[in-house]
Amino acid sequence: MNAKRPLIAVLTGAGISTDSGIPDYRGPAGLWQRDPSAQQLVTIGPYLADPEVRRRAWLMRREAGALAAEPNAGHRALVDLERSGPPVRVLTQNVDGLHQRAGLPARKVLELHGTAREVQCARCRVVGDMAEALARVDAGEPDPACRECGGILRPRTVMFGEALDPVVLRQADAIAKACDLFVAVGTSLQVHPAAVLPQIALEGGARLIVMNGEPTPFDEAADEVIREPISTALPALVRKLLTEGA
Asked: Catalytic center at which residues (predicted)?
């Protein structure tokens, strides 16, 4: 009888996507450091209440160019791990969809904060394509409304002031409890409830590896802390895990 293959859970944050040209939020050069007022553009209350906030938010999305971003070596390393090694589940705080674009099966990626590749009407809940909405902004609509009901269009993400989808959160908790190795990559581990996932994994007996440019609250509890750039450090870690059989 074959032994059970160890489950690897990988929690990814903004740091894995910075080399794809998508800025992080809380790092030394992060968006909140450069422009603290930008946080209201992704906060649900001001977004729904103030047309000017929405206009600024649409301009931010257009200028960020996130939809054109390409996966980098860190994303591709996780694809290599998934294809060559033990069972892998990626829990991501990112909304850029780059794990799937790199080649990870969508069923193995849990998007904790939703996706910025789609929009949703705040009134009738119809879902649409973000690229189509941005094309309307390019065409001169500063705050495009829902074509179905005229309601406010918003990204299909979890904005500040909103709770995570409880179904998604239960799935993330179950993965953290079941995993044998938990790897936190490019995340400050300060945003709750995602920040509790490493603790759940530790309580279940999993090993913990933290890979982040800045210190995190879990560094002392981790079996290994890696400070090197993610695009080189994550491929190296994947090679090590495959060599050692995780």
From this structure: 113
